[in-house]
Amino acid sequence: MVGKKSGKALRDEGLERTDNNMELSSWPQIPAINQKNYYTDYLKRDDQNLAFRLQNEEARTKMTKKAKDHDRALAMAKTETAEGEGEGDGDAHMEDAEETPTEMAGSKVIIIHMGSQNLRIGLASDALPKTLPMVIARKAATSESEDHDEPKPKRFKHDDGSEMEPEKAFGSEWSSHFNRMSADLKVHMRQNKRRMLPNSKEMVVNYNRRTVPEIISEHNDPMRAEWTEISNPPPEYIVGQPALRVPDSSKPRYKLYWPIRNGWCNEKDYTSKRSLFLDISLIVEDAIKNQLHLTSKKDWTQYSCVFVIPDLYDKSYVTQILDMLMREFAFARVCFIQESLAATFGAGFTSACVVDIGAQKTSICCVEEGMCIENSRVNLKFGGQDVTETFVKMMLHDHFPYADINLRRRHDFLLAEELKKNICTMNEASVSPQVFDFHLRVAGQDTRKYTFKAFDEVHLAPMGVFEPVIFDNSDKIIGRRTLIDRSVDIYDGSPNDPTSAAQSEILTAMAPPLPSHSKTNGDSHLAVPDVQTTPSRPQHPHALSKVQDLEGTPRSSVAGSPAPENTGTSQAGGTSTPAATAAAAQAPRPPAVEDRDDIMPVFALDNAILTSIAHAARSDEKKMRDFIGGIMVVGGGSLTSGFHLFLEERLQALRPGFSKEIMIGTPPRDLDPQVVVWKGASIFGKLSGTNDSWIGRLEYDRLGPRLMAYKCMWAY
Ligand SMILES: Nc1ncnc2c1ncn2[C@@H]1O[C@H](COP(=O)(O)OP(=O)(O)OP(=O)(O)O)[C@@H](O)[C@H]1O
């Protein structure tokens, strides 16, 4: 064809021959595609996506089955009428057939909520979950209390061996915080016209100094504790409640491991990621077998699982858990739900500001119409266990008669928890010198009955959630990211764990200055956490007022730009070019606060709640009023008596403009605040038809964790 064209025509087409009349190449020349007409729907339609296809197929199968059942029911009804025996009409029979499910809804769905201290597990059809300690005792050379030998001799003696006054045992800084809180409380109580004896503290200290325990022989103690007997041969590990009841001095020794600490994986006490997740799976497996009585693992393939994850979850943790549930436990389907969302389901609210005070972490999140508001998520690293520790410290400071108490010993930990639950209160009217008693039960020893007096310690210890400087925050970030790497974007390598503007703001307020030698290339996770410099209270107590102030518009830089600076552009939609990304990576700039592992999120609860709400409301005053009037407190840490009223007063003092609206709610129907999240997840697990976040076996086998992007209600 080309040969027949004129030289001009060929010149125009750019295909002019050389002088020997031959073409430059025998390869066919392909003209460039006209971009105007260029179109592809590759990966743009749902039917190209396995996850959606399987979902549709499942829906179709269900509809076909329903139609078949319908036909069958009609046929049966006709036969019966023809025989003249049935008096009722066919519809009634059909309804009967539809309304008689073969098995109770949710009886094949297992709901798992793992906490730092408690595991809650049950079938979705159960009214309440089974609660057991999230702990495993492993055979070891020494027990954990022997590893950390810190009781009386070390704490209460000077280096030269002379006796140390308990007031000095915890350092002058801690004592001065305690004394200041005590003085503030006195002033506050006077303002509220509460009567106080001027020398209450001295009375308490003098009483405690003098008191000696009464010995009760073991056979005279009707309430003596049941200790776990070690069988022969001794088991390699013991889990749950029996683990907590293994005597410290057992032969052989057992050491306790808590795989979840402060709401994160416990990277401090484990030496490898494998052993950490092995323990998690052993605890969960044991609970399914012994608490839910599903002893044969083969049957688990017929069960689905709803797993509760934190609002600000670590992606690598979720991926690992999904793998465990799918591969090891071989569940038929798995789905995830975030804690706060589950709490609103459990309470039956459509929107609320959920405050979950657990044992070692407190999370806050505003939920609106079935979605967590991402920028309102806050996760603080303290909870009920910090209150227990602080209560014991305060009591020791005031000459607690059982001076040898050591929370690393199992019996002492259980005793301290019990004392805290029974004695601590946020009710100011109950603050007066009072006598209490307790029984100390140690395996193989006679029971000792102690009496002691307590005064403001019962109030000041739980007050710590509003003044976390009194908590011991020194070891909470030790080991973070040593076993489990931060999740990163597969394209640009930037951290891609979920972030929240509210959390960033708190982290910014808490951030210790960056060490001058630290490389600011985003490799912040390599920096050694500088625990000593971490302040336990905001350096700028009013740093948040700008954001929280709805009347004014000024915003802090964090609030104005929720995404971290060095990840923002790439996450926002991948608009940055590789060259720009490379240039940006080389530019020296400080790492975003979310990417720093040396910041301890420990912040006053009332301020944290207001920060969360401010970010959820985004200057919309009506929303602000809605959330501030719908604060729901859940979790075991909120069970301290008088907590709700106290929190309400604190918030009113901080936001007098909203004092009429502020309302702290409890879950309805007298539901235990500790199980609301589990309950919500069980409701979620029973939803049929509307829940499309189930991850099935086939799709997981083919796509693996990539599937999460299609299956999560939130941005994964
Ligand atoms: N009646 C009570 N009064 C005060 N505190 C209580 C009471 N009952 C339980 N707690 C505290 O609640 C905490 C346990 O709460 P919860 O089970 O919600 O925590 P978790 O889910 O295991 O932990 P986290 O949420 O930190 O991961 C413990 O610190 C316990 O001492």
TrEMBL record:
<comment type="similarity">
    <text>Belongs to the actin family.</text>
</comment>
<feature type="compositionally biased region" description="Low complexity">
    <location>
        <begin position="567"/>
        <end position="587"/>
    </location>
</feature>
<dbReference type="InterPro" id="IPR004000">
    <property type="entry name" value="Actin"/>
</dbReference>
<feature type="compositionally biased region" description="Basic and acidic residues">
    <location>
        <begin position="149"/>
        <end position="170"/>
    </location>
</feature>
<feature type="region of interest" description="Disordered">
    <location>
        <begin position="1"/>
        <end position="22"/>
    </location>
</feature>
<protein>
    <submittedName>
        <fullName>Uncharacterized protein</fullName>
    </submittedName>
</protein>
<feature type="region of interest" description="Disordered">
    <location>
        <begin position="141"/>
        <end position="170"/>
    </location>
</feature>
<feature type="region of interest" description="Disordered">
    <location>
        <begin position="78"/>
        <end position="104"/>
    </location>
</feature>
<feature type="region of interest" description="Disordered">
    <location>
        <begin position="512"/>
        <end position="594"/>
    </location>
</feature>
<dbReference type="InterPro" id="IPR043129">
    <property type="entry name" value="ATPase_NBD"/>
</dbReference>
<feature type="compositionally biased region" description="Basic and acidic residues">
    <location>
        <begin position="9"/>
        <end position="20"/>
    </location>
</feature>
<dbReference type="Pfam" id="PF00022">
    <property type="entry name" value="Actin"/>
</dbReference>
